[in-house]
């Protein structure tokens, strides 16, 4: 069965995001194993893109570092294949649509299946354009994760009824990045989702402190943390594993009782 | 998937956060484009403020010198703010006001679209912020100060290649963070639907005027219409009226930089392939993994790795042709028109002139070429001097 279905079976989910190849494929591979060992519920792997329109400066910089280190889509597929020999953690690709379209959507999703990627999140592919990728996901058994935002309003109905796996709730307007105040739009958004469909909702964008994670976990089924982790990777480079794991430990403790 | 398409091109590939803003824009545009008051206000501003209609000038010296087709220049350079950009901006800012927006944001490459946006925002009393690549703020320093004079805030974009593509990224990012009171005045026939269609419609006044003026002057339609193409708004603006007249050849001239065989080029049609970026499916310069390529042209306005989706469609159905023009050819045309006709063209428009200079001598004396002189060249004088090795700073 698809690994995505178990993400929310262990209390509130903690989903870290890292950019594949930042600062190198080797470091990313080690991070995935460490994160899996400590018990994160899923890992979101960003495929670096030259022009990440939905990202703030922190993840933009990570994309640059990954591309400069020679990371390519094929090298990321190879890395996932190596990881899957010993590691069963649910893995989702976060990628802009052009790297998929340019690779060939059919070929890309078939490769995802072959190496063991479970889900895909495409921030510049809204509901209306989902046929660009979603039919191939279905064909190859890859879960297509839909996003909703505070500005989605009445769109939530159609997006939710079509959604699978879980829904990625964008906490607030704007691009990714650490925020002091992530607002309280998510509670209403999630309420509107659940009116339409009983599907888990995870909140992302802006979450960095244990307090924020705890507050967001309370109103949702899980939290996604990207920029706060990527910032540590940016600061420590190939020495980032220890500080990243220390940070992830405090976040896990904030939302899961057994880590306290 | 069929909405807002030109063949397979176009679409709306943007983050969910922006979808309601785009849908709101689409319904507002569909409503107001047929609204009598809106049309009246738009046309009145085009005439009274922008100075339309722009002249269709018979370039007698150039015609005599090239010994071929009769050459006409559509003088968009004589519009207020010095380029065709004002046509689209007047339409969009009027629309933004009707939609109740109090703030406009825009990207700019050469600075012409930024200046036009800052100008109309000043006229109609809206707050204005412009995003411009750092490299472009350096090569177009005068336009930066011009925008500031007009009351706009100018943001230097330091991400990526620090040129037009990155300015577009940053303007989209800004829009994502503030949609309620803000309209994004996109400067070309690109981006997510409805922009490619809306910007084309606002620019199509160019081709309508050319048709009338040409019938008046020569009693017939031109044989060839030429325009430079980055995103492609001045080209779409002049082509659109002639698409249903297959006897009129339509030629878009894109920036080849050092040449299409080098990697220092911005010739999307010659070197790109189909992709999805900046909200649209179209041709893009990209590597085998779909990473958008860093592009280069002497012209900041054509220094863009993509092209509007309707152009991609016109290319595929072979209704329009697209040719690359190098920096060197464009600079020579820039100097040629200055000496020959006493008109200093924008370096962007000089790309279209350069191709006309190759084409005209191969045509009959009875035949007619119209070149869209999309902007004036004052902004480029210092850069061209530097290209020629003269150490002039603005």
Describe the structure.
The complex is a heterodimer of chains A (260) and B (394). Helix content of chain A is 45%, strand content 14%. The radius of gyration of chain A is 17 Å and the shape is globular. Chain A has a single domain, classed as Alpha-Beta Barrel (TIM Barrel), CATH 3.20.20. Chain A has an eight-stranded parallel barrel with strand order 1-2-3-4-5-6-7-8, surrounded by eight helices. Chain A has helices spanning 25-38, 57-68, 73-84, 97-103, 105-115, 134-140, 155-162, 185-196, 210-218, 227-236, 241-255; strands at 13-19, 43-46, 91-94, 119-121, 143-148, 167-170, 201-204, 222-225. Chain A has 260 residues and is an alpha/beta fold. The mean pLDDT of chain A is 96. The longest helix of chain A has 15 residues, at 241-255. Chain B has 394 residues and is of the alpha/beta class. Chain B contains 16 helices and 14 strands. Chain B has helices spanning 16-32, 36-48, 60-66, 85-98, 112-124, 134-139, 141-149, 164-177, 195-203, 205-218, 233-239, 268-271, 309-316, 327-341, 347-359, 381-387; strands spanning 5-6, 9-13, 56-58, 70-75, 103-108, 127-133, 153-157, 182-184, 224-229, 249-257, 273-277, 279-284, 320-326, 368-373. Chain B has a six-stranded mixed sheet with strand order 3-4-14-9-10-13, with helices on both faces. In chain B, α4 (85-98) crosses α9 (195-203) and α9 packs across α11. The mean pLDDT of chain B is 96. Classes of the chains: A alpha/beta (260), B alpha/beta (394). The interface between A and B is large, with 41 and 37 residues.
Helix and strand topology:
The complex is a heterodimer of chains A (260) and B (394).
Chain A: E1 13-19, H1 25-38, E2 43-46, H2 57-68, H3 73-84, E3 91-94, H4 97-103, H5 105-115, E4 119-121, H6 134-140, E5 143-148, H7 155-162, E6 167-170, H8 185-196, E7 201-204, H9 210-218, E8 222-225, H10 227-236, H11 241-255
Parallel strand pairs in A: 1-2, 1-8, 2-3, 3-4, 4-5, 5-6, 6-7, 7-8
Chain B: E1 5-6, E2 9-13, H1 16-32, H2 36-48, E3 56-58, H3 60-66, E4 70-75, H4 85-98, E5 103-108, H5 112-124, E6 127-133, H6 134-139, H7 141-149, E7 153-157, H8 164-177, E8 182-184, H9 195-203, H10 205-218, E9 224-229, H11 233-239, E10 249-257, H12 268-271, E11 273-277, E12 279-284, H13 309-316, E13 320-326, H14 327-341, H15 347-359, E14 368-373, H16 381-387
Parallel strand pairs in B: 4-14, 5-6, 5-8, 6-7, 9-10, 9-14, 10-13
Antiparallel strand pairs in B: 1-2, 2-12, 3-4, 11-12
């Amino acid at each position: 069965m698809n690994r995505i279905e178990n993400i929310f079976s262990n209390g509130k989910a903690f989903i870290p995001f890292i950019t594949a190849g930042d600062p190198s494929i080797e470091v990313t591979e080690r991070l995935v194993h460490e994160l899996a060992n400590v018990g994160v519920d899923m890992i979101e792997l960003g495929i670096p893109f030259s022009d990440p329109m939905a990202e703030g400066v922190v993840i933009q910089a990570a994309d640059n570092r990954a591309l400069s280190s020679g990371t390519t889509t094929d090298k990321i597929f190879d890395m996932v294949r190596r990881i899957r020999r010993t590691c069963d953690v649910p893995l989702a690709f976060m990628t802009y649509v052009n790297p998929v379209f340019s690779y060939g959507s059919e070929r890309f999703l078939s490769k995802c299946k072959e190496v063991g990627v479970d889900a895909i999140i495409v921030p510049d592919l809204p509901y209306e354009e989902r046929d660009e990728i979603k039919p191939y996901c279905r064909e190859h058994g890859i879960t297509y994760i839909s996003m909703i935002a505070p500005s989605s309003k009445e769109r939530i109905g159609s997006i939710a009824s079509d959604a699978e796996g879980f829904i990625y709730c964008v906490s607030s307007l704007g691009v990714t990045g650490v925020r002091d105040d992530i607002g309280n739009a998510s509670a209403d958004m999630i309420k509107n989702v659940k009116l339409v469909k009983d599907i888990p909702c995870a909140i992302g964008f802006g979450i960095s402190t244990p307090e924020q994670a705890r507050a967001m976990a309370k109103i949702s089924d899980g939290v996604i943390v990207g920029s706060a982790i990527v910032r540590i990777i940016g600061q420590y480079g190939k020495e980032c594993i220890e500080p990243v794991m220390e940070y992830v430990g405090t976040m896990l403790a904030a939302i899961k009782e057994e880590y306290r | 998937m069929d909405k807002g398409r030109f063949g397979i091109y176009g679409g709306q590939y943007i983050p969910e956060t922006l979808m309601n803003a785009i849908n709101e824009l689409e319904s507002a545009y569909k409503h107001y484009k047929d609204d009598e008051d809106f049309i009246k206000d738009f046309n009145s501003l085009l005439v009274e403020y922008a100075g339309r209609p722009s002249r269709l000038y018979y370039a007698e010296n150039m015609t005599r010198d090239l010994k071929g087709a009769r050459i006409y220049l559509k003088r968009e350079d004589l519009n207020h703010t010095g380029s065709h950009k004002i046509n689209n901006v007047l339409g969009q800012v009027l629309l933004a006001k009707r939609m109740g927006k109090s703030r406009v944001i825009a990207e700019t490459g050469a600075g012409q679209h930024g200046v036009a946006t800052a100008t109309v925002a000043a006229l109609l009393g809206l707050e204005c912020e412009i995003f411009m690549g750092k490299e472009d703020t350096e090569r177009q320093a005068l336009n930066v100060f011009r925008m500031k004079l007009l009351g706009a805030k100018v943001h230097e974009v330091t991400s990526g290649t620090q040129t037009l593509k990155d300015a577009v990224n940053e303007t989209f990012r800004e829009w994502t963070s503030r949609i309620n009171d803000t309209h994004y005045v996109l400067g070309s026939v690109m981006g997510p639907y409805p922009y490619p269609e809306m910007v084309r419609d606002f620019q199509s006044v160019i081709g309508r005027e050319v048709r009338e003026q040409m019938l008046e002057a020569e009693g017939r339609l031109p044989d060839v219409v030429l325009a430079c193409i980055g995103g492609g708004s001045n080209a779409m603006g002049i082509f659109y009226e002639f698409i249903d007249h297959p006897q009129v050849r339509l030629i878009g001239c894109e920036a080849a930089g050092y040449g299409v065989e080098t990697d220092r080029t911005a010739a999307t049609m010659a070197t790109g392939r189909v992709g999805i970026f900046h909200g649209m499916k179209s041709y893009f310069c990209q590597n085998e993994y779909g990473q958008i390529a860093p592009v280069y042209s002497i012209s900041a306005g054509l220094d863009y790795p993509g092209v509007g989706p309707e152009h991609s469609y016109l290319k595929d159905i072979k209704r329009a042709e697209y040719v690359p023009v190098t920096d060197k050819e464009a600079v020579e045309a820039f100097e040629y028109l200055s000496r020959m006709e006493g008109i200093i063209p924008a370096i962007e428009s000089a790309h279209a002139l350069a191709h006309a200079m190759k084409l005209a001598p191969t045509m009959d004396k009875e035949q007619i070429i119209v070149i869209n002189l999309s902007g004036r060249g004052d902004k480029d004088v210092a850069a061209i001097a530097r290209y020629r090795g003269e150490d002039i700073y603005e």
